[in-house]
């Protein structure tokens, strides 16, 4: 579509993943936290965001990163749209950079455990706020693949309006019925997915939970062959209960 002036739509994507793990002892739990901090430190998160920024065709203006004590990391990118469609009445790139200086990408990590359980979780929050033609939805497969994602929650909202050359207000500049439309079918096949959408407000929510659990992928410093069948069943049951409560957003069991 041809627009009059600059595309004023704001697109916000909040992407959250949870990785769940069985860490039997308090020592194992502390080692799990150290392992997560080493695997997902601010340097690695920064590289993930650089790739993500390149995928959406944005330009990095500023980067801030931080590793926290005792655990966790965060990275923030200020980004700008440097593209301009030829032959349209858009502003010059230097004006676009000034207009988009509040667009950003942030990532925060939250590893945690409770000493009275043997379940540890790792959460990543990624928020992408863009203006204009930049859309973060096409990065979802990359984001899901960048982390061990057992539970995923995503919120996408388009705010504001822009105008076409005839002066008509446009509150959405692309087709969307669900966030799932932008996720590869092969990825969706391994998850249960639920939508809660408010189409009148251009608000879309999707949550996903992995279908099949291979216990060997969830044991930290524990060998599955050292466990009895009853122990394996109990651990799998506890892992699944943890995932269901995170997926549901409430205490159930």
Topology pattern, helix = H, strand = E: EHHEEHEEHEEEHEEEH
Fold-level CATH name:
S-adenosylmethionine decarboxylase
Query: Please, how many helices?
Result: 6
Number of E strands: 11
Arithmetic mean pLDDT = 84
Please write the CATH class name.
Answer: Alpha Beta
Proper CATH architecture: 4-Layer Sandwich
Mind summarizing the main beta sheet? 9 strands, mixed
Judged by helices, strands and strand pairing, the structural class is alpha+beta
Fraction in beta strands: 25-35%
Unreliable stretches: 84-102
At the fourth level of CATH, the homologous superfamily is S-adenosylmethionine decarboxylase
Distance between the termini: 51 Å
- Work out the helicity level: 25-40%
Shape assignment: elongated
Task: Give a topology summary.
Elements: E1 10-23, H1 26-39, H2 42-55, E2 58-67, E3 73-81, H3 93-99, E4 104-113, E5 119-131, H4 140-146, E6 151-159, E7 162-163, E8 169-170, H5 185-188, E9 191-198, E10 203-210, E11 219-220, H6 229-248
Parallel strand pairs: 1-11
Antiparallel strand pairs: 1-5, 1-6, 2-3, 3-4, 4-5, 6-10, 7-8, 9-10
What does this molecule look like?
- By secondary structure, the chain is α+β, with helices and mostly antiparallel strands.
- The protein has one domain (10-248): S-adenosylmethionine decarboxylase.
- It has helices spanning 26-39, 42-55, 93-99, 140-146, 185-188, 229-248, and strands at 10-23, 58-67, 73-81, 104-113, 119-131, 151-159, 162-163, 169-170, 191-198, 203-210, 219-220.
- The strands form 2 sheets. Strands 1, 2, 3, 4, 5, 6, 9, 10 and 11 form a 9-stranded mixed β-sheet that branches. A two-stranded antiparallel ribbon has the order 7-8.
- The protein is elongated, with a radius of gyration of 21 Å.
């Amino acid at each position: 579509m041809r627009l009059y002036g600059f595309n004023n739509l704001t697109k916000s994507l909040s992407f959250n993943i949870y990785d769940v793990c069985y860490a039997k002892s308090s020592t194992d739990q502390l080692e799990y936290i150290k392992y997560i901090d080493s695997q997902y430190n601010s340097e690695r998160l920064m590289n993930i965001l650089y790739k993500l920024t390149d995928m959406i065709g944005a330009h990095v203006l500023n980067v801030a990163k931080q590793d926290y004590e005792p655990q966790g990391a965060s990275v923030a990118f200020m980004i700008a749209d440097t593209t301009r469609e030829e032959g349209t009445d858009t502003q010059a790139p230097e004006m676009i950079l000034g207009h988009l200086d509040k667009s950003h990408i942030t990532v925060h990590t939250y590893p945690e455990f409770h000493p009275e359980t043997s379940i540890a979780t790792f959460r990543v929050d990624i928020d992408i706020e863009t203006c204009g033609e930049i859309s973060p939805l096409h990065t979802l497969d990359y984001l899901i693949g960048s982390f061990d994602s057992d539970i995923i929650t995503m919120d996408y909202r388009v705010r504001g309006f822009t105008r076409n050359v005839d002066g008509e207000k446009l509150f959405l500049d692309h087709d969307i019925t669900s966030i799932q439309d932008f996720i590869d079918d092969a990825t969706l096949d391994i998850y249960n997915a639920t939508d809660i959408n408010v189409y009148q407000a251009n608000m879309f929510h999707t949550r996903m939970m992995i279908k099949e659990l291979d216990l060997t992928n969830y044991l930290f410093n524990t060998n599955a062959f050292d466990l009895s069948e009853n122990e394996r069943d109990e651990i799998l049951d506890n892992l699944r209960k943890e995932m269901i409560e995170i997926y549901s957003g409430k205490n159930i069991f």
